[in-house]
Design the sequence.
């Protein structure tokens, strides 16, 4: 039996930019080994597997090496596909049960709005290994679930960063998110994320990190609504809005490929 697989570029309104995610819409739970093989075959930062359950949809995300607890662009791409293919009315929000609990997606003036839990970073002292990975002294270092947040003195350092990926795999947390205030005036802040131990040397665009970036920059800039640019080679634009202990992460998406898995 063939399985349809759709590739969607998330956090962009242009094809071949943003972060590509593969999405498999299933009738029900799938074999674990098969999902791991499909994610490895796609070799994207995440492949999403989704199927209907009572009250919404079950959603899982796999990298080429591991399953992750929360994925912004994979959620955004999945919601885009469910609306585009008529699984859900575009006027209705979508609820997803994930390893991080229930999250939701809705449409707002052409933007997909993800409702995620807030993850404020906890300040820590940088290790010598982290300083060697970066090659500069950070303004701030904080931990969050499965990741380290680094605030650079300038956005040029973020844009030009070439971290030592071998050393990065020695850090206790697999994800390294680097950010700085934007100097161009086009957005509020810029960021990049690296996770080589998860099979992602650099994420093309990372949405989930904005559950951490949002509260940090909202406090620094003293306002709850912000705009972010992810400054990888592909690039992406993200809007962020704090709402109590939740954060709304807003982006757009474009379907670029439909295929059939034969095995």
Sequence:
């Amino acid at each position: 039996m063939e399985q349809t697989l759709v590739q969607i570029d998330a956090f962009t309104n242009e094809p071949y930019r943003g972060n590509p995610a593969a999405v498999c819409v299933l009738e029900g739970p799938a074999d674990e080994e098969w999902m791991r093989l499909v994610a490895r075959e796609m070799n994207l930062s995440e492949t999403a597997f989704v199927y209907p359950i009572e009250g919404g949809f079950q959603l899982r995300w796999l990298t080429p090496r591991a399953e992750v607890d929360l994925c912004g662009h994979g959620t955004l791409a999945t919601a885009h596909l469910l609306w585009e293919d008529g699984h859900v009315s575009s006027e209705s929000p979508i609820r997803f049960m994930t390893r991080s609990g229930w999250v939701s997606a809705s449409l707002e003036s052409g933007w997909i709005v993800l409702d995620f839990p807030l993850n404020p970073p906890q300040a820590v002292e940088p290790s010598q290994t982290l300083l060697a990975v970066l090659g500069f002294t950070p303004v701030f270092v904080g931990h969050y679930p499965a990741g380290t947040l680094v605030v650079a003195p300038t956005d040029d350092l973020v844009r030009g960063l070439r971290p030592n990926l071998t050393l990065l795999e020695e850090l206790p947390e697999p994800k390294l998110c680097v950010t700085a205030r934007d100097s161009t005036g086009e957005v509020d802040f810029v960021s990049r994320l690296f996770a080589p131990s998860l099979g992602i040397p650099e994420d093309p665009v990372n949405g989930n990190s904005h559950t951490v970036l949002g509260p940090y920059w909202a406090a620094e800039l003293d306002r709850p609504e912000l705009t972010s640019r992810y400054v990888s080679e592909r690039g992406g634009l993200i809007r962020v809005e704090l709402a109590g202990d939740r954060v709304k992460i807003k982006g757009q998406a474009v379907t670029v490929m439909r295929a059939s898995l034969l095995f």
